[in-house]
Fold this sequence. Notes:
Distance between the termini: 37 Å
Number of helices: 8
Shape: globular
Largest sheet: 9 strands, mixed
Structural class: alpha+beta
Strand content: 25-35%
Helix content: 10-25%
Radius of gyration: 18 Å
Number of strands: 20
Amino acid sequence: MKPTTTKLLMSVALAASMWSGAALAQSSSEGSGESPRAVPGGPELSDRGVAVTPPKVDVDEIGRDLNLDPEKLKQSYGTVSRSRGGEEKREGPSEDVLRSLDGAFNPNADPAFAESGDRQVFGDDDRVQVTDSSTYPFRVFGLLQAQTKEGFSNCSATLIGPRTLLTAAHCLYDHDEGWYDNFMFAPGLTSMDSAPFGVWDYETAYIFEGYITNYQGYYGSVVPWDIAVVILQQPIGDHLGWLGYAHDPKLGDFHANIIGYPGDKPAGTMWRANCDVSAQAVQEQYFQYHCDTYAGTSGGSVYKYDPQSQQRTILGINVAESPNANTAVRMNQTYFNWVKGLAK
């Protein structure tokens, strides 16, 4: 990594680099297992949705040309929200986020996997289609569709609470177009002909101020802020369950699992992949891996499975490709505090 990149990451993620305590985590839930009941005449997915074009990033570009003074750095972690009614609001960073900026395993594949210019596919394509999403955890992953000026876009998202989705900011906001609109979530979708758990409207979408204001004309300038939260109108997670998420300050080698909706496969089909992540590929703001993904998998969670606790924990969000690996924004302490403060 170039010294300029290291300098930026050290300043942007000061909390994560200095925090030496135990991992901060929000636990998962398997839900009641019942199917949530959608209101008749609710939202419907468009079969004209196109997978969001995956950003390309060279690690040497991350943070290039960004010389943020301490005050602007803090404001970068403020929140910009958009409601379903089109109202945009801006709020400064929370006290928990500000405190984090001021200073503050056992690798195994998910056993559920055994049961059942584009984004890089490395070597042989080892992605496996998920055709039955009725069981946990598959029903907590879903297709996130948005309306754009040109039509509809498709991304991936994960339930992390009764009404909360975790995804990527570039699935919600385009630097040329602005906010996308009419976000809809179809959990457990396995084809465009069948949404086994319905299609659900959003209430509010949230991204970091820095994802908008720090853009320098290329994606690498905003990689550190490419994470987003979407609040749904209904608590479908009470029925379907959700995944936990965590900041692990000592994150080293781990086995990564990803479930999403790659655009090189039939529309609306769910695919899983897994791979090892090396401690050498883990930085404060992101980590890289050779899990096979593609356009449309943007926003999908990168999680690990702990066989002792039988917990699945999100450690990052799949966001981009680079020449030699795919990239996830890491769930560091600042992001953990931000997500926790918004989750419902």
